[in-house]
Amino acid sequence: MGVPRRTVVKIRPSHPELGVMLPNPPADLRTSPARVWSGICTVIKYVVFFCLGMVVGAVFLQSDNVQKGCFESMVAVGFSTHRSREICYKNQPSYSNGPLTRFDCMPRNANAQDCKKRGCLWDESVQNVPYCYYPDKYGSYSNMNVTAQNGKISAFMQRKIKSQYPEDIDLLQFEACSETESRLHIKITDAKRDRYEPHYPEVPQVQCKSFEKSKFQVKISENKMGFKVLRSPNNVIFDSEDIGALIYANQFLQVTARFPSGSLLYGIGERQSPMNIKTSTYQSFTLWNRDVAPTDKVNLYGSHPFLLIRDKFDGTKSKWHGLFLLNSNAMDIITQPGPSITFRTIGGILDFYWFMGDTPSQVTEQYLEVVGLPRMPPYWALGFHLCKFGYGSLEKTIQVWNRTRSADIPFDVQWNDLDYMDRNNDFTIGPKFSKLSDFVDMLHSIGMHYIPLIDPGVSAGEKAGQYEPYDYGLELGIFVNDEKNKPFVGKVWNGISTVWPDFTNPKTLDYWTLMLQKLHRQVPFDGAWIDMNEPSNFYSGTIKGCPKNSLNYPPYVPNVIGGQLFSKTLCPSAKHYSGSHYDLHNMYGISEAVFTSFALMKIRNEKRPVTISRSTFPGHGHFASHWTGDVFSTWSDMKLSVAQTLNFNMFGIPFVGADICGFNGNTTAELCARWSQLGAFYPFSRNHNSDDTIEQDPVSLGPSVVNAARKALRIRYSLLPYLYSLFYDAHKRGTTVARPLFYEFPNDGNTHLLETEFMWGSCILIVPVLDEGKTSVDGYFPAGIWYDWNTNKTVRALKPLTQTINAPLDVIPLFARGGCILPSQVPKATTTESRLTPLTLRAYLDVNGIGSGKAYFDDGDYVYSIDEGKYSLINFTVTEKTFTSRVVKSGFPAVPPLKTVLIHGECGKVSGVTVNGQKWSNFNFDTSSCILSIEVDLNLLEEIKLTWHTSSMEN
């Protein structure tokens, strides 16, 4: 839920440009025979030029990756005959100042006169590239006193050229530290005084280790500007040496670098666009947390200056690494042909980490070692959640809850949006929800759960003594202050005015815990939905705006929506306990999430907190989770939600999902059916929409949506033991839960740009229908054996292949990967019931007849289950027609019994089975589907061995 519905604006990327209606031309410009012939000649000329361009392009496409990238870039800016030699001449060095490798010298209000004053070059003959750009070897800073010892390289950087931004810093300190064999940390700071650095995430402080065993090298040369990071002597992965300009002024910091030719870039969030960042054109990504409906090329709710980079691919093998800028200030990150990148931030320091992971999975795991491993969710949170802004009353809430339960749709968590409050005020219950506590008690009695919305904004317009959250907060002095040290006053949903708790103030933890505690006594909720915490403000600053100073009006404003840092948020000059809002804005959400999660653990007696936050920052997943905000009910938004979900898994926030069927605007039955199927495989699965739209819970939209949602959610619930085990791995090692195919198949180049299907872990392939009117979908299958979940048919991909899959409206195509063993249970109405049913282990044999898997078990809710060893972990393997289970940990005794073992892919004629050395008759073999089913009643906390025998083989 975001800004008032009347003011929600979304710029649809699919909308055509607005046409301009021109009046009739004057008589002398109207059609004449001469003008007709002239037009024909012009058309012929351009056809010839176009054909010539295609020939040139074909030649270049046969050349190396540099030329391919060059040609792609040329097409992107528009083929220009008089510039083609300059742009893509075969012998042109890749590191030239051609139009497509220009680094912007004047990002605002460029003009030739001021450009030349900066010592830069001016050329406006090519469109869509910077007109004002840095010459080669601009040399804004010069390296000196380079030293290296004990795993650390140090240097000073002396300013040589004035930057045109106020308060240039003359002397910089450069330090490169080899923190691990695969992690490099480089900081560039003011050599004479401390500057602001973020307090989240709490990054590890380690001793530097020798570079001799490192997977990287750092080169910084005397009397040059910048530095290089290398993976090998011939593989420079970050080259900022004498490229563009290093700028380090008080409120403008910039560094530019080139990546290897052919690199693919992913990451930089939060954004609503494909995972892969195209580098054929100039693109700018702005990070400054903002309440705005998700739209391409707009700064959204969270800030994640992290990139995953494929730096090498020879057609059969790839290399990957990660790059992270630890900086919480507003910034632009510009990508461009080359490929190249510019980081441009308006505060803090330049604090970079590199992660040499070789594979995407390794990169993510190494990144999360720095920012924090994800929190383990409770088991019940993996069920289906339902909400709507605008139920308006408890009676309506119960009506929707009842019809969802009656439709036999698996369902675990009921939510309420803002309308449960009294006059939109936090920590209150409105008169139409006076019996909410009784409803929540009933939910708990049948194993269900409840989550309400809690905004950070506290009403400041109530009468003294009548609203404790404001009075007590004022007494403690825990609100964000204005320049006069009085509470900063804006407005969100409250009737008159709003103030904001300062979550950097230690006193606020006690305050926030007490307020939540008192609400919990009224309604025993199970989690907290913290919305509007960018923080959102219906004013831009105060009702009078913001004071004129360098924090509110800095010399450079990144490309934020609204044009000012304070647009629909607090004034940057507002004061927190730990500093100015200018520095802390992007961390407001994570700061609130930290305090909320700690409060929930205390209030709920050490049960795992479920804190779903809209605003995020690196390290957020260590404390809380995320949903992707006020998406629109469109096919485009549904499709892009796949990339959003995968991006946040990459950022270390695996418990994430979009509002199923969309939040803004009216859905349709077909869209909601398909989105319900997709949403059943979001790690966080919730249907939610706005107060000015039609109802979109499955039952409200009719049988087609009910059938689609029910079937997909039953599959989800049957696979919850597998999903829960994936979250255990994420919590322990930093693996992703939902992941793109290139995480599993990094050496299959066809997966590197594939974003229309994804995986749960290593084993489940999800191929959703994402286009209107389609009843089939083309699925890409990397090499291996894939088992159709819906039909039990097998896709044998001796090499990668694409295959059309039948997908009627009630079916989402799903495939289990050969080589996997999946734990599953019978789906019931809730996770509470489902987790009590016996286990089935599904073994899917690969081409060699082997497989492996695991299952993790605990009580599902205790926050210290893993720390205290109160869990059980069992590994499974299949090889040479023998299934075995091995107990790794047996700290949780209530593991469900094993009732069935299914062996998929055994096509030989099974003649006998033994279980733990005893001949076994309770089995069935289906020759048509090649499935062997063995019925048992075994304790998984005791090791198990099942063997089957075949008398002949069928191909």
Describe the structure.
- This protein is 21% helix and 27% strand.
- The strands form 11 sheets. The chain has a 9-stranded antiparallel beta sheet. Strands 30-29-28-25-22-21-20-32-31 form a 9-stranded parallel beta sheet. A 6-stranded antiparallel beta sheet has the order 33-34-35-40-37-38.
- Helix 9 crosses helix 11 and helix 13 runs parallel beside helix 14 (703-718).
- It is globular, with a radius of gyration of 30 Å.
- Mean pLDDT is 91; it is low at 3-36, 45-50 and 52-96.
- Among the domains are: 98-133, Spasmolytic Protein, domain 1 (Irregular); 141-371, Sandwich (Immunoglobulin-like), CATH 2.60.40.1760; 738-950, Immunoglobulin-like (Sandwich), CATH 2.60.40.
- A hairpin with a 2-residue loop joins strand 26 (575-576) and strand 27.
- The protein has 955 residues and is α+β, with helices and mostly antiparallel strands.
- The longest helix has 29 residues, at 33-61.
- The protein contains 17 helices and 51 strands.
